[in-house]
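Entry 14. Structure prediction run on the chain below.
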Amino acid sequence: MSYRMGGNIDNVIDGLKNITYAKKKYRSSVIIEIQFLVNRYNEHQIPEVRKLAENMHVLLRMKSMQILNKEDISKWLPSDHRFRRYKIKAGEYEINSSLPDRCGRLWFNPVITWDGKIVPCCFDKDAEYIMGDLKEDSFREIWNGPRYKIFRRSILSGRHMIEICRNCTSGLKGAKY
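Output returned:
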């Protein structure tokens, strides 16, 4: 069973080498981070990924994997509980997060889709909460615009009411690596 079927790790490593080379060449202060989505089928590769990050002089962030189909949760959950996004409560899997009414992503991590739409964060995988379109407005207008302001306010008063937030890792204690 594979998560990124058709992916090519050699292409990823070549791209990482190119980015780290450019960073060094131009003395850039940009921070490069590898994100590793830990699941049952790849958790044995953590030492290898850690070594890669160390050799490339980049940060490594272990992330818990979002599982969209409830019937698949037990198949994908890592054996190491530090990397589990879900816990079992009353026989059901639920997010292992307190879902506090706050989210830094809305102020620091905008996401631009392939077609120029701005969505609030990476958990809006289907672009259901479009804040604006770069073909119509500038990034600054969208970022400071009414849709973002309303969405941010709704997070601060009831994050649990927003669908994309219910499976979010913000507020989830991550494993330290």
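The two ends are 26 Å apart (CA to CA).
Filed with the rest of this week's runs.
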